[in-house]
Amino acid sequence: MDAWRISFARHAPDGRRAFSGEGARLYGGRWNSKGVAVAYASATLSLAALELLTHAEQRFLAGAPLAACRATWPDDLEVEAAPPSVYVRGWRRSPAPPALAAFGDRWIAERRTAILLVRSAVIPSEQNVLLNPAHPDAARIAYGAPEPFSFDPRLVR
Predict the structure, then answer these.
(1) N or C: which end of the chain has fewer CB within 10 A?
(2) Which domain holds residue 82?
C-alpha cells in the first residue's frame, strides 16, 4: 500500500525526512498532541492535495516549491484502522475533540503498529494514514524521492 504527503520542498529534501513526524511533534494535530511525533499522509495524492489546501494558508501555497512524497510498505506489514467508536460527535470540527489526539497518542505510545488508518475529516469516506516513525516496523517502509508538485493556479488565488 502507498501513502502520499505533500510538503514544502524545503521540509522534504528526501522522502524519509518528509515523513519524520517533526511538524506534528512541534504543533500537534487532529490525531496527536504537541510533543508526540507522527507523520500525517493520505491514501491518495489527490486527498493529500486537498488536505494541504484545507490546512495551509493560500498565500503560502501560491508559487511555493512543493514536493509530493510517497511511502510504500509491504502487504504483510500489520496495519491498524481506527475503530468506529473513535469518531465521537463532532470529530470533523476544528479544533478536533481531544479524544482523537488521546487515541493517537495511545496508539503511538503503545507502539501497536507502524501505520494507523483514519478517516479524513475533509472527505470522511476516504482515508488518511498516520505513520509512527518510532515503531520498529517503520524500518520496513520505503520512501520514494520527492517529486515536484504544484497546484493548478485556479485553486490557489
Answers:
(1) C
(2) 2-149
